[in-house]
Amino acid sequence: MSIYLDHAATTPMIEPAIDAMQRSLRKIGNPSSLHTDGRSTRKDVEEAREVIARALGCAPSEVIFTGSGTEANNAAIKGLFWNAPDKNLIVVSAIEHHAVLDPAHWLVEHEGAELIEIPVTSAGVVDCDFLADLVAARGNEIAVISVMAANNETGVIQPIDRVVEIAGNIPVHCDAVQSFMKVPLDYAGLGLFAMTISAHKIGGPLGIGALILRRAFEMPALLHGGGQEREIRSGTLNAPSIVAFATAVTENIYNATSVAALREKFEAGIAQVAPDAQINGQSAARLPGISNITFPGTQADFLLLLMDGKEISCSTGAACTAGVHRPSHVLMAMGHDEIGATSSLRFSLGATTTAGDIEYALSVIPDVVAMAKAANAL
Ligand code: PLP
C-alpha cells in the first residue's frame, strides 16, 4: 500500500492531459514556422493560451509561457526590478518560496538592491500594517512587491487584495503556484501586475509554467533569441506541455470541498492520535489540501524516513540542501524556534486522495511519532 500525501510538491498528471500531450508529441511543426504544419501547432498553443487566460481573468497576450514556476518568479522579480532603474527597494514576504526569495537576495548581492521582508503573524499571514507603514514611508523607492497567494508549506492564504490596495502604483507580483485551480483567483480583478502559475501542481506536466504580465508592460528580455513570448522569453514554444497544461485546466478534477473534508478528517484524527501535535496556520484561512504539523520532540527528516518506510510520501516542507535539513524559514517567520521548525511535516492532499489514504496514515502515525521521539531522546 503506497500512499501519496505530497501533492503540493507535485500532483499526478490527469489522464486527459497525458492524452493531449501524446497527441501533440506526435504532431510535427514548430509553432513559429509559417507553413501549414507550423500554423497548426501555433493554433494549438494559442487555444491553450486562451484557456489559461480565461481561467485567470486575464488577456491571452498577458500569458507568457515559461519552463517552470521558478523561472516565472525569477523573471518577475528581476524584470520588475530592472524595469525601475530609479528604484532600489525590493519588498517580499518573509514566507515566499525560494524561487522568489533567492532572486531577490541575488539582486542584493550582485546589483546593490535593498531587500525588506514583510513579517507574518503567528498564524502565517503577512502583516499588512507593516507593509502600509513601509509604503507610506518609502513607497517611491520600491521597485516591486511580491507576496504569494498561499504558502506552499502551511497552505495559509494571503490577503493579496489588501496588498494591492496598499501598494497603489507600485507593481505587485503574486506567486500563485499553489493557489491556481484550488481557490478562486482573478488576476484582473485583483489588480495585479504579475502572477506566476505552474502546470505540475494542477495535473499538468512538469517543466511548464507561465508568467502573467500586464499587456502594456515592457520587460527586459530574459532569454534572447527568436523573440517568442513578447520578446521576453525567446525559445521554441513547448507545444505538447502547453497543450497539456491547458487540458489540465479544462478537465480539472480537483474538488476543493471534498479535499477540505478529507483534510478535516485527517486533522481531527491527528488531535486523537498525537494530542501534543500542533497544526501550523490552523487559525488562518488555508488552501483545502495542506496540513503542516509540528510533532514536538521529533526530527522531521527522521519522521519522513519512518513515514516512507510505511510507504507514505509526505514532506518536511522546507528546503533540503545536500541532504542537510534546514529549519523552515516559513515556520521560523511564524515564531517557531529552530527546534520547532525542524520537527514539522507537511502532508498535502490532492484530487486523488481517498478516505482510505487518510485512515491508513492515521493508523501509522502513533508508532512513527513514538519511534521518532525515542530516537530523538537518545
Ligand atoms: N512557488 C511555489 C509557491 C511553489 O510551491 C513552487 C513549487 O514547489 C514553485 C514556486 C516552483 O514552481 P516549479 O516547480 O514549477 O518551478
UniProtKB/TrEMBL annotation:
Domain Aminotransferase class V span(s) in chain numbering: 3-360
Similarity comment text for this entry: Belongs to the class-V pyridoxal-phosphate-dependent aminotransferase family. NifS/IscS subfamily.
GO molecular function, one term: iron-sulfur cluster binding
Keyword field contains Iron-sulfur: yes
Protein's UniProt name: Unannotated protein
Gene3D superfamilies (alphabetical): 1.10.260.50, Aspartate Aminotransferase, domain 1, Type I PLP-dependent aspartate aminotransferase-like (Major domain)
Cofactor annotation: pyridoxal 5'-phosphate
Native source organism of the sequence: freshwater metagenome
Keywords: Iron, Iron-sulfur, Metal-binding, Pyridoxal phosphate, Transferase
InterPro entries recorded: Aminotrans_V_dom, Cysteine_dSase, PyrdxlP-dep_Trfase, PyrdxlP-dep_Trfase_major, PyrdxlP-dep_Trfase_small
